Amino acid sequence: MSDRSLFQKVFNSAEIGFSLRAISIIDRGITGSAILLGLEAIITFGIFGGVGYALAGTLAMIILAPLAKKIKSDLPNGQTISDYFQLKLPDLGYWVMIFYLIMTTVSILCMQIVAGGMMVYAIFDIPSSIGMFLTYIFCILLSCLRRSELLTKLTLARVFFIFTVAFILPLYFFLREGAEHIYKGIRLYHPYLLVTDNKDVLYFFVLSFLIVLGKAIMDSKLWQYILVLDKRESSHTFVLSGVIWGTLPLSFSSLVLIVIFTGGFQNINTIYYDLLHGFDSTFLLSLFVIGAFSAISSTFVIEFDTLTKLWKMNLVPRLSGYAEQKMSKAGNYIAVFISGIALCLSIYLNLSLLNAFFYFGILFVSVLLPMIVIICSKEKVSNLITLSVLVCTTLGFILLQNFGYMKGLFICALTSTLLNFSILVSTSLLKNRKEKYK
User: Fold this and answer.
1) What whole-number distance in Å separates Cα of residue 109 and Cα of residue 134?
2) How far apart are CA 3 and CA 153, in angstroms?
3) Rounded to an integer, what distance in angstroms lies between the CA atom of residue 345 and that of residue 416?
4) Residue 358 falls in which region: left (phi positive, over 0), alpha (psi -120 to 50) or beta
5) Separation of alpha carbons 366 and 388, rounded Å
6) What is the mean pLDDT of the chain?
7) What is the pLDDT of residues 390-412, one digit of tens each?
8) Are 55 and 188 spatial neighbours (Cβ–Cβ below 8 Å)?
């Protein structure tokens, strides 16, 4: 059975309601970084920072709904995001976006490696760099043993398991400690977490929305779901996906309150350590660890599979004869090499999960508006639009070094908006001028 026919069976079967199809889409948002990022957002921006991150994901999914409908209208028989790029972009623009898709895939791999390193540190109290390496080895083994059909069939079971963990654990701790007791402890030791007039929370919410939407719009697996989903149900499915997904990081991030309500903490790593060692039940500890590593490993496997498919579907078909046959078998080796680069980058940067979210967020903020232009355009898009992605990305990483994460991201987003608006206006005027003199 081909991947497309399998997806169609899963998503468009009469026996499966759109709510279950929504949960399948949510599976793409359940990454290790998404689960653990809310904890760090609460520590950095307060309780409303965790709420803002969850709300940003919800709004991103809702905004994606009309875009998904347009994508399906443009390419009713397409299978992948690269098919859509071939439809909407010239050759240069096509290869720029394929290269950029590889970059965004590497960034997602980095986020999972960082999340895995933090979890290994919390469990075994070993350096996070060793934890990152062990996470990489574990995920590579799973990737090499992967079977697409099996992974797809296990999607619903895995999502239900993670949601069960997300609701059982906070409920257990709040019942054990008492919600009022926890609230009083937070007011006593960490009153700054309850501040409501913190402007940074609003900035964090806006940036989270842009980054999460940019990530979703460049997610090749999500595109496969979009292209096999029935056009009539796409809007309802994505709206429901957003509403359900928002509860997940909010639920997991509430666990941080259980750790800190009795006193202070040294840093974010010690919070993960204290959280895992705060479980008085081996069963509950196992649930949390399995849930977190399930999200991390499955996301890694999916991105690994994306790299192999990009290799086989975009480069190999341009070869011929013996070279094509030989190079088609090299997909896994190429994916291992690229994911190895992600490991080295993660260890070299040595960022916290939140800082990694901002750092790699430059990629998604830079590509967001050009992708919206590509989707909304009725004809092929100018190469200038795709080249603007590279310009804004380069500028964004420079700005991060000089202005910090949040200011750098905002300036990058503003630059992308002005640059793409200028390109659209200039190309439109040039086109009208040519038609006038015909």
Assistant:
1) 14
2) 12
3) 25
4) alpha
5) 8
6) 81
7) 999 999 999 998 898 999 999 99
8) no
Q: Provide the residue type at 365 as one letter.
A: V
> CA–CA separation, 163 vs 177, rounded Å?
22
Q: 314: which residues sit within 8 A by CB, 6+ positions away?
A: 82, 98
pLDDT for 14 equals 41
Instruction: Assess whether pLDDT exceeds 50 at residue 179.
Output: yes
pLDDT of residue 326: 58
- CA distances from residue 103 to 88, 97, 118, 133, 307 in whole angstroms, order as listed: 20, 10, 23, 20, 10
For residue 315, give the DSSP letter: I
Using pLDDT thresholds of 50, 70 and 90, give the confidence band for residue 167. confident
Cβ–Cβ < 8 Å for 23, 103: no
Instruction: Please tell me the distance from the alpha carbon of residue 23 to that of residue 137, in angstroms, as a whole number.
Output: 29
Closest to 218 measured CA to CA, from 349, 357, 86, 369: 369
∠222-52-57 over CA atoms, to 5°?
Answer: 10
Retrieve residue 302's tokens. Answer: 């999916």
Alpha carbon distances (Å) from 271 to 74, 182, 238, 276: 47, 16, 33, 9
Among 258, 76, 73, residue whose Cα is nearest residue 181:
258
User: pTM higher than 0.85 for the full model?
Assistant: yes
Say what the pLDDT of residue 44 is.
Answer: 84
d(CA 419, CA 181): 52
| Phi–psi pair at 349, nearest 5 degrees | -70, -40
Per-residue pLDDT of 295-339, as tens digits, reads 888 888 888 888 888 887 776 665 555 455 556 567 788 889 999
Q: How far apart are CA 291 and CA 298, in angstroms?
A: 11
